[in-house]
Amino acid sequence: MGLIVLGVILLPVVSSADITISPDSLYKNMPVTISYPALSSGEQILVGFDAGFTPQTTGIQGLTASSIVVPFSLNPGTITSVEGVLFNNSTQLFVSDTNGTVDAGTYGVRVLKAVSTIGTPVNLSWMVGGYTSGSASAGQITFTPSFTPKAGVLNVTVRVGEDTLSKLIPYDQSIAAPAITSNDISLVKGQSGYGNVSISGLTTGLSLYNLTIGLKAGSVGNFTNVSTPSGVKLESNSTLPASVLTLNATASMSGDVTLAKALNITFQGLAVGTSPINVTINSLKDKNGVVINPVLVTNGTLTVNAPPLPGAEFTGTPTTGIIPFNVSFLYTSPDNPNGLKFNWSFDDGSVNATNSSPTHTYWIAGSHDVALTVQGATDNNTKVRPDYINARQVPVWFMGNVTSGSAPLSVSFNGSTNDLMGSWVYYFGDGGVGYEQNMTHKYDAPGVYTVRAQAMIGNARNSAVRNQYITVW
Fold first, then answer.
1. What is the pTM of this model?
2. I need a labelling partner for 280 at 20 to 30 A (CA). Which of 166, 196, 297, 374 fits?
3. pLDDT tens for residues 91-141?
């Protein structure tokens, strides 16, 4: 086991499969990416940076206009310099070396030294460290530096708990590296989306290349279709659908190519979650056949979201009535009812309805909840309207199953009373009379008819009248 010197801090070096530091070489606009494992609450973490360079001029030099993204919070925590003066990149104010809290977020930093001697090596060191204030899933710290002078060596040391990893990264920010980028994709489970892999910054053109594109979490999604430029084909082992593809350019692109689409991809979401879209360079050559190196690789992310819940909004008309009475329910959510399943509960002991917009007859007095459950492709949603229907009862009442139509019109009448009755009689308004509480009457002639029902309850005769209730044409 060796020791890594970070300014005045000595850390033991041990290998860790859970910590990675990239890239191997650092060029203009390239970030340093530190991958770390899942963190427990109260776990110690330290990320140290030591930049060494040989100044060619005098004056203020070092780390300028740089930023670091810290995805977790540290309490206590600190961002502090060991060699050099640390400034906040936004306020340009000196940052004191005192412990406090480091919240998750992006921090702009500068670490500077006044250089008075040319040719004498200079070191600048700074660090982010502390104890996690809560658990955190595995992730990445991203440090995007800007150095003056532009060439040197950066030593990055990471400690998580008992594991420590260090890496020496030579940098030359006078070199602009070409970039390969896979874009971010967001889609809904079961649906498809479109993305691409592009190659940019090709100042010396592009001829032959071989790339592998893969989803790290193949259970989240896969590739179902690709479209490649002329002269580019999939390797024989890339059978669709797949979670890993290898493509090979077999014919040179003519002329100077500064931006090339390596391929267009159709993604399919299989399960809710996220997966990096990793691009691996197997070979990349310019128009002269010279290997292009270095290359900045930016991996996108496939995000698969759960389908939105179907709507379960509805209305009923009327919401108040005398039993028995009908209520017409209407499904009012903007979702297309085709492909959805419905389950209506009316809170009166009746059988649930399963169509999208039912009509229900209330026979029981009281306040009734109405609940609608709508089943979508993968999940359901329920809407409950408490005490939505107010059903009242009077000594005598009745209703007909239809109230208008062409002659001859048959109407089924149903009556109700609030107590035991001795007799019942209907006066249908066309001269007809009926003596059953529930019966059917046929209207032969056009007209508008008032219907009256009369029931003997105890020693009292009770009546109900519905004026101009039946219309026949």
1. 0.52
2. 166
3. 444 444 445 888 898 888 888 889 999 999 999 999 999 999 999 999 999
| 463, 464, 469, 472: CA torsion to nearest 10 | -30
pLDDT at 10: 41
d(CA 12, CA 45): 14
E strand segments, 401-459: 404-405, 409-417, 423-427, 433-434, 438-443, 447-457
Rounded Cα gap, residues 203 and 181, in angstroms: 16
Tell me which residue of 184, 164, 120, 171 sits closest to 145, measured CA to CA.
Answer: 171
Whose CA is closest to 152, among 52, 60, 58? 52
pLDDT digits (tens, 9 = 90+) for 280-313: 888 888 777 778 777 778 889 999 998 888 999 9
Query: Is residue 441 classed as helix, strand or coil in its secondary structure?
Result: strand
Beta bridge partners of 185: 302
Q: Which has the closest alpha carbon to 128: 169, 63, 77, 83?
A: 77
Q: For residue 293, what are the CA distances in angstroms to 55, 210, 258, 465?
A: 26, 14, 15, 94
Partnered with residue 274 across adjacent β-strands are: 303
Please enumerate in sequence order all residues whose Cβ is within 8 A of that of 334, keeping only pairs 6 or more positions apart, or say none.
311
149 CB neighbour count, 10 Å cutoff: 17
Secondary structure of 276-341 in the HEC alphabet? EEEEEEEEEECCCCCECCCCEEECEEEEEECCCCCCCCEEEECCEEECCEEEEEEECCCCCCCCCE
Residue type present at position 85: V
Those residues whose C-beta lies under 8 Å from the C-beta of residue 367, and which sit 6 or more positions away, are: 387, 389, 390, 391
As a residue count, the chain comes to 473
